[in-house]
User: Fold these one by one.
Assistant:
Number 1:
Amino acid sequence: MAVKTLTIDGKTISAEESATILQAAEEAGVIIPTLCHLDGIYDVGACRLCLVEIVGYTKLMSACTTRVREGMEVTTNSERLRNYRRMTLELLFAERNHICAVCVANGHCELQALAYEQGMDHVRYDYCYPKWEVDASHRLFGMDHNRCILCTRCVRACWHIEGAGTKNVSGRGNQSRIICDLNDNWGVSKTCTSCGKCVMACPTGALFHQGSTAAEMQRDRSKLEFIVNAREKKQWSV
Amino acid sequence: MERIKIATVWLGGCSGCHMSFLDLDEFLIELADMVDIVYSPVVDCKEYPEGVAVCLIEGAVCNEDNLELLHKIRARTQVLISFGDCAITANVPAMRNPLGPDNVANVLQCAYIDHAQDNPRVPMSAGIVPTLLTRVMPVHEAVVVEYYLPGCPPSADHIKALLTQLLGGSTPHLEGKQIKFG
């Protein structure tokens, strides 16, 4: 297996050629903020929080979808990157109706945690206040589009861990939204196995267990990790 | 030493931030030695005075009275602090905004007619009951705000941290665990 040598924040490291910048950084102990990334499912670079600077590129690149190259010089934390990260977070908050005080995920929310980490004490943009519905038709779970950031973790967990293919993305731009099957209510979906992996994967309060109230929604990712681990390490014989 | 003039104001919010302010407990006594609270829901003063150094603003901008008072506060105050989630994000009061341009008529209808047990009637009294704005706003959308103290409500510890920095003459700066929404 070929190994590439590169620098991340001035630190010389080596990584497998198939590794992404994010994986290489993690191994070297450099923390890059992420939101749409979830260990075990493929990356799509949707949230733009892991953007990094690479010498020779004028564009910022997402660390989760860019592979390492020989001699690459990567910066993960600069004034410019901090500005973009804060801007991205503020735009996520402004785009839909994130009301932390009444949210099921309050205190256990990855969007909130990242906002604190980046020092976001207010949003500089005008809030959009769009009208979105809540799908509470499923027996066990609910989906509140007001809190969705379109990271697509649920879609990827549904297709690539469970293999059910219930969740999808519909629409364009700020009208994009997560749908079940061909835009049916979740409760009548014939493909949903009610496994709850999408709920485990969700970083905000958009997917929740029925009956949970403000600040009650804590996610258990251990099942996702267990399945992915067992699959990758071929611990299950078929 | 001349005491610093401080005001606190309660716009469209639940008064929870002011309750949290009262949770400062013994720090309130220290504070009383340093500042004069010249205008506040807990002070009997009808008109917002001139020459206020710092004003903590609780609540979102929901009606014409809120907006008028806010412009007066800005003109008469050196430093404005958005105090709590309603002031910073418009929070729960803004939950009527997604209902669209007719949200005022809709929420009044729902609250005072549809769910009224006796005498269903929308309260109307020119000059007394302020007209609701069509869109609830965070404070910084209406006027320039210097500092932000999030939380629903902000904890007494965070209020103390910010006030201590400010009264100590340094630029207030909250970070990490001192920032908390909800």
Note: DSSP finds seven helices and seven strands in chain B.
Number 2:
Amino acid sequence: MSDSHLRHYWTAFRTIVTKEVLRFARIWVQTVLPPVITTALYFIIFGGLIGERIGEMEGYRYMDFIVPGLIMLAVITNSYSNVVSSFFGSKFQRHIEELLVSPIPNSVIILGFIFGGVARGLSVGVAVLLVSLFFSPLSIHNPLVMLVIVLMTSILFAMAGLINGVFARTFDDIAIVPTFILTPLTYLGGVFYSISLLPEFWQGVSMLNPILYMVDAFRYGSLGHSDFPIAMSFAIIAGFIAVLYGIALVLLNRGVGIRS
Amino acid sequence: MTPALEIRGLKKTYKNGFEALKGIDLEVAPGSFFALLGPNGAGKSTTIGIITSLINKTAGTVKVFGHDLDTDLQAVKRSIGLVPQEFNFNNFEPIGEIVVNQAGYYGIPRREAWERCEHYLNELGLWEKRKDMARTLSGGMKRRLMIARALVHEPRLLILDEPTAGVDIELRRSMWDFLTRINTDGRSIILTTHYLEEAETLCRNIAIIDDGGIVENTTMKQLLAKLETETMVLDLSEPPPGIPQDAPIVLRQIDDLTLEADIRSGQHLNDLFRVLDQAGIRVQSMRNKSNRLEELFIRMTRPGQSPSHLTPGASGTTEQPENQA
């Protein structure tokens, strides 16, 4: 690939990311503020009111225990919903055609949307982290693990949102996966509890939930506590990213949902 | 010289079995202003969709300035600017951003993109509105925005799919001037339109597509020469003293101050003036009864509705003899 091609692709990538960031920034009242308020309520009700009665979880104050999980919850849902709504919106209004007629490889289109989703996921994640400081002191055990895990998780769910956006034909289709799959998996992914509290059978079931490993690894980066080896969590997330990227690329190359 | 567009045996069959294109051949010369006409559902938009890679073809080859759609897609895309039939931009984006982003997709750095954006939005009278959301624009402004967006990467071939639909006459004429100017500067243009007057005014070459096949592909002059009879409407300044019955040109009185004259192929307007002069008929103004291209278009795409004064074309495959019309 020549230098001029690389420069062109880089410009195109930056254009898509900038466009995506401006999109959610323009409507920050709809995109950034609600998750921050929701998470603040979680902190007040679960961490403050109920958490006081729960006491400690795995040796940590309950409030401190749920902070990493709630940050991941915000990152996951926002990375996902940014890409699914943006991609479906561009199909719905047909401005996806602006991209389809231009000489951008599908891989660059995917990366552009993904990093738009990552930008929103991280923005909301940082906002939630700042809100959490009102309830819990900042705790960083391994900043590199925290950063890489949150980045990889954000990429993974942005990718999943893209695939959902490719298949979606109606606005209902973009709500089904977050409502019936993503939210339950996140809530059952160890955000509010350690799986060591569960009976053995349900521990086994929980281990099939990939979000469990992401929350666990992020909690390790924050508190230094994890239920699973960190390397295993990295491998699982990386594996999912590779598989979903492959699926997204095949779908776009075949023009599924975007070309006749 | 390499054609701007070369299509061979292009077929498109949709999943439901509908054959939108049945193997069309088409060639557009570089620098041409080319009209691609056809009734609704004839295959125009499918053809454009395939050229711009929005629709996957079933068979055939498409080359744009020699670049093959199958083997050199990126070069094909760089060569084309598309103004689609329907508005396809983000209504919630400022119009300057829409144009600049499109340039970015073509690898044009942001500073240069803004310079080009300013140039084209100025040309099309939209620069002052660059910060306005696209949804606030009128229909005509939205059409102009799509033209600016299609030109920002300076394509060699501009494809306009009904660019003046819903645009008032004043604006339409200013768009004609703009398109004529960029065509004169060397840019090839393919135009589809339902305003046949527009095609007749702007285009030098024409193809008519119907039922998934090309029924005519020639120059505008050659096509119009196929009209055997042209009907002129004459507005008189005073009632005529009489209507000559044995004149070489047939005259019909419509009302006290209106006549119609049928001018056959080979006759000239001078012959009409002579007849009118000899009969002492004073004419205030004169016009075509209907658009000439429209007459031919109806003839070629709707043989059953053919007016009787058309000559069967030599190259049209769907034309029928006069006695079957």
Note: Chain A touches chain B through 30 residues (CB under 8 Å).
Number 3:
Amino acid sequence: MTPALQVRHLSTTFGHHGTPVTAVDDISFDVMPGEVLGLVGESGSGKSVTLRSIMRLMPHHSAVTGSVLWQGCDLMTMTEAELRRVRGGEISMIFQEPGTALNPVLPVRVQIEENLRAHTELSAAGRAARCLELMDLVGIPDAKRRLTQYPHQFSGGMRQRVMIAIALASNPKLLLADEPTTALDVTIQDQILKLILDLRDELAMSVVFVTHDLGVVAATCDRMAVMYAGRIVESGPVPAVFAQPNHAYTRGLLGSVPRSGTERSPLLSIEGTPPGLTSRPAGCAFHPRCAFATDLCRRESPALQDRAAGQAAACFHSDRVIAAGLAGS
Amino acid sequence: MTLSLRQIPRPLLLGGLLIGASLVLAVFPATFAPYDPVAMDYNALMHAPSWAHPMGTDNFGRDVLSRVIHAYTIDMQIAFFGTIFSFSFGIVIGALVGYAGGLADTIFGRIVDAVITFPFLVLVIAIVSVLGPGLVNMYVALAVVGWVFYARIIAAEVKVQKRLDYADAGRAMGYTPMRVIFRHLLPNAITPAIVYLVTDMALAILLGSSLGYLGLGAQPPTAEWGVQIADGKNFMTTGWWISVFPGVAIVLTGLGFSLIGDGLAEVLRTRK
């Protein structure tokens, strides 16, 4: 099967008072048709920047290099006009804060119709029918009345549903979701996740899910890629990575979340904080916080290497990490 | 969304009443004015206010009340045409500059500096004196200078708005920059400009009267408050009513617009 989206050597740098800083550092990954890929990492690890770079939404003072192949075309070299056809039509995006991602002064109907106007040939009647259909699809009751309302008249979860309705209006083949549930209550979070998964099945689309919540990854994603300091440090199928992390950082992340079904044991925490954009350590960016670090890690930066079970990790000491196992298991 | 009568702030209500009344007088001056505004009555020169002439008569025997009422037509026009061109042009430029940022913003900043360095009135007078006196040229002059203030307000607001997610969301949906700017950003940024527009209408009336007074705006014998005050300035000691009543009309109308501006700001603030 050919991947729907192929990201190759994507790097994003910002001009920072003369010295450029790198937010995303040479990352590559594939998204298969119908697959949900989780992009996991702490705040500042470059997950959101990765999504925005793919959509070319970064501000002018940043430089994005690499290629993003979408159905054989490179999004990075497309003209603005071609890009506009892809954005919102073939690839859609939803945001963390549904409250700020919707235009506060336009009724919901206008905002959904706007996407239809931009990407479909539907007539006015067709658009009206499609609006109702979309409201049903995302589970907003009383669609006819709700369509005339403004975003502030919706609750947080309902707003995210509206956002999803807009994003899905033109049947995209790929949904980029930037922490879509982070701002929501846990119960609502669950509903939205379920909705996204249902829609994935129904519309046969791929999803890239950016989150810092491993619980969300376990519940929704097929594959995951763990990001640290702008790089992918480990990737692989979700069950495999959860069972046997190959990278010390992934091990630390998984160890810091309570798990059911295992013996009670103290939670691991990763000492220290992630490095800032301007103070990335030499060698492996994780070495100052890593229990497995050696001189090699301080000198050289490990490349992402294929491991067993479809996993890949950027760690010199994967074998020692595996041998150490997960705390408590 | 809908406000009940009690929720409407006092200033807005009072201002609305003043401007509402002004508009009625402006549209139907002949219905309310007891005399022809330019008809001279040589038997009634410089009469003090009386029952026949509630605001007295001027040195040509024209009824001051009728002239004040007829002037509403001109002065309300000045309030509208003196601001609407600056407003329309200013918000478009402001939205584009605010969205583009960078070099466009720098150049725009220098233009703003250049314009606000000169006192407003001096700049307008300079332009009018080049184009020649008259109302149309006055509107041109006001637009040439005034758009800068609207553009500055909108540019600042758009700069804030364009960083919000919905602007990115619009671009992520594949909308054109023009669509994002005018459909999404401008409606969200326009509130302060509308408040300023109403206040600016008061300023336009003052300015129109000032230019009328200086002989650069409406031309005699047209009934216009500034012109009337200028007509009466030589008779301040013997016929104060010739200048004072048009002055009162200016104050009331200006006050009306200012009150609406304040009230509007209050309503829009609480709604946010």
Note: The interface with chain B takes residues 52, 55, 57, 60, 83-89, 92-93, 95-97, 100-106, 114-115, 118-119, 163, 166-167, 176 of chain A (CB under 8 Å).
